[in-house]
Amino acid sequence: ISSRVSANYSRTRLPNGSIEKETIAFTKGGLLKGTEAATVDMLNFADVAETIARPLAVQGYVPSRDPVTTRLLIVVYWGTTRTPEHSTNSVSGQNLARASAAALAANHPQAAHFNPIDSMAPSQMAQSSTTGYAIRSPDQIDSDNAMSAALAASAAEDAQRNTLDAQNARMLGYDSLWDATAQSRGTALEYRRKDLVDELEGHRYFVVLMAYDYQMLRKKKKAQLLWETRFSVREQGPDFSKQLAAMAEGASQYFGKGSGGLIRGPLPEGHVKVGEIKEVGSGADR
User: Fold this and answer.
1) 49 closest CA partner among 268, 277, 284
2) CB of 230 within 8 A of CB of 2?
3) Burial classification of residue 28, based on how many CB atoms lie within 10 Å of its CB (0-12 exposed, 13-18 middle, 19 or more buried)
4) Residue 213: other Cβ atoms inside 10 A
5) Would you call 94 helix, strand, or coil by DSSP?
6) Segment-wise mean pLDDT, segments of 10 residues, the chain, 286 residues
7) Burial (Cβ within 10 Å: 0-12, 13-18, ≥19) of residue 265
8) CA angle at residue 62 from 252 to 70, to 5 degrees?
9) Other Cβ atoms closer than 10 A to 217
10) Distance CA 84, CA 34 (A)
């Protein structure tokens, strides 16, 4: 879980100490399907909004259809992350392994020995103190060329893998940890980077909520982001619906609040029962 709050946003407390309710409306941000398997049992926008509305209501955010009184517009993104292939399973990784084995097998150069004063020896060799030079066979030349091509393809794949990991880090709220461990290679903190990469490269269900000032958007056509909450969990089976309620419940304590960085922990057990969610009418109806 990672949650951030704008300096322009705060909630009002009532005389009894409780937080004043705020009205919200949902809009669809987008669905990301990281794998073909993710198309199975993937929730639609209405399902996601209905599930998230319950823990939002517990935190004092209640749905409204009145554009005049709606305080927040919550944009919802959800889905499964795209992850790179592991190097041992990727095509370029397999090609590199084969090219490396072939290069080692062909690495048996023939040594041509010569007399340094022999007029038939290559001039550059005759002028040096070397007593021999290596002649590469056509098979070795081909295997070395294949090895170079495989190394280039593997390097390109590593760069693409790093780019995708960075994108996932930003989307899931891992960006601060990603940046903090960027230069950890070769240090005592290198294990943190490896653990982070392993976590990002596992398929994850995620939800991103971005809350905008609805009245400013409606009246001035300006999008002012007031708070955002990003939460995810490692994918366990193809059914997102079985994970979403627990995910939202665990993240709900940070709705409209800052988490102070990335929060890790197990999904909460049990269920919270919330009463019927009622629409809030306009001020004239109260």
Assistant:
1) 277
2) yes
3) middle
4) 20
5) helix
6) 95 92 95 60 85 96 94 94 63 52 53 53 47 56 63 69 88 89 78 87 92 95 96 82 90 95 76 50 45
7) exposed
8) 120
9) 15
10) 10
